[in-house]
# Entry
Amino acid sequence: MAITGDFEAYLTDNWYGHQITVTALLEAEAEAGFDYAVVMPQTKEVPDNDELVEKTAGNPHTLPCVLMDPKRGDEGVEALKNLVGKGAQGMKLMGAVHKYEIDDPMVFPFVDTAGELGIVISVHSGKDNCSADRISKLAERVPDSPMIIDHMGYPDNFEDAMQVCRDHPNTYMGTTLLRFHKLWANNPEETILGGVREAVSELGAERVVFGSNLPEYRPIQVKRAIQRLDLGGEAEELIFGGNLGRIYGLS
# Structure
């Protein structure tokens, strides 16, 4: 049976009046036919990583990914080690939330430690301090560690993200793109994610990983947007979970 999964979904206390618990999150994933979800804590200045690990402990469908702030320095590196010891399987870097340059040298010890611990690294990409071209400096430090580029460099740096993937075979494009198509299709059921097609065409389907950015969008909405590309069954199997299974070592 093929592995299915979502590389980016968040717990949150209040999303338009709704609490996204582990149960609610997995129900949304199941609606789209996904068995696994990489679960991240609510994106705030001091994310509750310990709570994330506790809430996902023992659940075979969740892969906890902690959100780390490199400004914490050595204390943060030790915290990362402790969290992985408790069950964390991934690390997320989000300079847009914690306000740092993604290629600042203070980030390197966190990336190096993640590589040593054998966990997956997810990196937010976007504008300015999170521009996708800066991720190259991180990827080259840990050539044997999988690194997912969230948002594929959108809205302004898709080509930079593509170049990072060309240069570094350990990097992957994450399909959390639906938010950037609001100007062209206010209805998610009409959106077509052309950047995914281009990434698959040049890099191969094995370098593209499905992500929904739940709760911003339901996984099924992003899945349908990708299905409208008509990439074929083999490519969809890889994107919708095969690659995630390989990256996270799922059986």
